């Protein structure tokens, strides 16, 4: 009886909707408000659709993109960009346990130009781009670790302008490629995950519904790369200050008294290190949260280390390889001597000497690009970041131009 009454009420309400709507639309102000809401709603849907389309094109299957690039061009005078080689199929390949990895997961696709009469539809390429600061991280790693291969992996099909074309970023690219141990490669997310514990999870699509998509793809790739090859993973907003070639593998660094960070990690390609990498992949998919920026990077390595070390107390993990079964947790001075809340210390001339002194025993510095990327420094200025760059990435620093 209750169900019947409820159903009858719903039917009656539906029958009255046309009448209610007609009365509503006869009010001029309400009609305008209603139309404005419809326009905003449709605009939001279109913008979201366009963003989703761009994202899909950034991470499209490589074979489709390569076949598209072989077609006619929009302008015969414009040369076809060259696609970067795939890391899985191109020599030299990463040497397990003897390679340093950076990942670039941003999408750098030009705006579509209007098609002219008689021309083919304009093709959009995800172009190779690096900032001077990213190049500094890469160069400093190559400079201080000449016996390691340094791989910069771009997520998705990535194209480079031909060497004879004049591009503003070319001097920066040339600066890092002057090091024989630097390799620029692309990867396909699905092929890269094939045969790993996270392959099936990736197909579910949860990663691409993340509110922090590019950041979480970066988190995803750092654990996957260490699972595939071992070696050292580094964020692109670091400057390496000395060699890490002789540092035993299987380590990360504490960022605070409560959390480890995922910006610097090393795992051996076999044995215990490989087991840790597998644990990280399983934790990533088990606890993935697309609405939480830090849960899938620092959160993963923190939770895995807590399981290995049998404690949530970071102070007990520090320097105690026996408690952590050989997994080393460096204190903050190793990689994060300047915490993110004090990121401006790298940019303030009056804090130059203090900051240099504070980081004199660090392996590298992390300059917290999320907060500092908008603050440029004049080349030659007396800032800690400028001094690091001048000494540890001289070619990228020189190629930056007036501002770094």
UniProtKB/TrEMBL annotation:
The keyword Transferase applies. It is found in: Golgi apparatus membrane. Pfam families: Gb3_synth (PF04572), Gly_transf_sug (PF04488). GO terms for cellular component: Golgi membrane. Residues 270-400 form the Alpha 1,4-glycosyltransferase domain. GO terms for molecular function: alpha-1,4-N-acetylgalactosaminyltransferase activity. This is Uncharacterized protein, isoform B. SUPFAM superfamilies: Nucleotide-diphospho-sugar transferases. One of its GO terms (biological process) is glycosphingolipid biosynthetic process. Its main location: Golgi. Belongs to the glycosyltransferase 32 family. The gene is Dvir\GJ17463. It comes from the Eukaryota.
């Amino acid at each position: 009886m209750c169900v019947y009454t409820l159903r009858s009420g719903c039917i009656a309400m539906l029958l009255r909707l046309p009448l209610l709507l007609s009365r509503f639309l006869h009010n001029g102000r309400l009609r305008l408000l209603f139309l404005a809401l419809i326009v905003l709603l449709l605009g939001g849907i279109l913008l979201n659709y366009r963003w989703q389309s761009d994202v899909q094109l950034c991470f499209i299957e490589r074979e489709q993109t390569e076949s598209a690039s072989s077609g006619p061009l929009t302008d015969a005078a414009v040369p076809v960009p060259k696609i970067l080689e795939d890391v899985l199929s191109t020599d030299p390949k990463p040497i397990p346990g003897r390679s340093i990895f950076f990942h670039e997961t941003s999408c750098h696709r030009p705006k579509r130009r209007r098609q002219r009469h008689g021309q083919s539809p304009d093709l959009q390429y995800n172009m190779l781009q690096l900032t001077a600061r990213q190049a500094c991280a890469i160069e400093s790693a190559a400079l201080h670790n000449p016996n390691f291969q340094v791989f910069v992996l771009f997520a998705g099909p990535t194209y480079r302008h031909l060497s004879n074309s004049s591009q503003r970023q070319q001097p920066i690219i040339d600066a890092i490629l002057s090091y024989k141990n630097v390799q620029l490669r692309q990867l396909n997310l699905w092929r890269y995950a094939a045969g790993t514990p996270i392959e099936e999870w990736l197909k579910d699509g949860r990663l691409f519904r993340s509110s922090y998509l590019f950041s979480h793809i970066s988190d995803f790739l750092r654990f996957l790369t260490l699972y595939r090859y071992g070696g050292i993973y580094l964020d692109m907003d670091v400057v390496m200050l000395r060699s890490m070639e002789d540092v035993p593998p299987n380590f990360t660094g504490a960022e605070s008294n409560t959390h480890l960070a995922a910006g610097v990690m090393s795992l051996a390609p076999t044995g215990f290190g490989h087991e840790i990498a597998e644990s990280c992949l399983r934790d990533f998919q088990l606890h993935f949260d697309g609405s939480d920026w830090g849960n899938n990077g620092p959160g993963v390595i923190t939770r895995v280390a807590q399981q290995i070390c049998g404690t949530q107390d970071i102070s007990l993990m520090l320097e105690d390889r026996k408690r952590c079964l050989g997994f080393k947790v460096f204190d903050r001075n190793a990689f994060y001597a300047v915490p993110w809340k004090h990121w401006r210390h790298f940019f303030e001339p009056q804090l130059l000497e203090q900051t240099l002194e504070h980081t004199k025993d660090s392996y590298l510095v992390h300059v917290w690009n999320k907060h500092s990327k908008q603050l440029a420094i004049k080349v030659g200025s007396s800032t800690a970041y400028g001094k690091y760059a001048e000494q540890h990435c001289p070619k990228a620093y020189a190629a930056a131009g007036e501002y770094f």
